[in-house]
Amino acid sequence: MLETGPIERFKNVGDYSSYCRKVPTSWTSNNKRKGKGYSKNGNKYLSWAFTEAAEFCRRYDDKAKVFFNRKSAKTKSAVACVALFHKLVRAAFYIMKGNVEFDSNKLFT
């Protein structure tokens, strides 16, 4: 919460996820690539913290482990790790926005 600041400054969960550096940037016009986006926008400390949280969640939470294994069976393990990261970012946003407790049943259903 200290790194995020007031959560009201983010209109939606996508803006918060972008601030945590997990939304890819793309500059396209007419389906042609017109340059690279700046990938270092956002908070590097939140990116690091959520990456570590996703790793620990994958190791020690059974539901997260099932989600990760199911996702990594379909794609690469790096993609599965980012998907878990994104789930945790979304959960953190809604927890801070609504001032509610974390419920893993809602996260991994």
Question: Can you walk through the features of this model?
Answer:
With 109 residues, this protein is mainly α. The chain has one domain. It has 5 helices and 2 strands; from the N terminus they run αββαααα. The protein has a two-stranded antiparallel sheet. Helix 2 crosses helix 4 and helix 3 crosses helix 4. The longest helix is centred in the C-terminal third of the chain and has 22 residues. The protein is globular.
Offer a concise description of the structure.
A two-stranded antiparallel ribbon has the order 1-2.
Gyration radius, in Å: 15 Å
Largest sheet: 2 strands, antiparallel
Low-pLDDT residue intervals, each spanning 5 or more residues: none
* Dominant shape: globular
As a percent range, the share of strand residues is under 5%
How many individual helices? 5
Mean pLDDT: 85
List the helices and strands and how they pair.
Elements: H1 13-19, E1 28-29, E2 32-33, H2 44-60, H3 62-74, H4 77-98, H5 104-107
Antiparallel strand pairs: 1-2
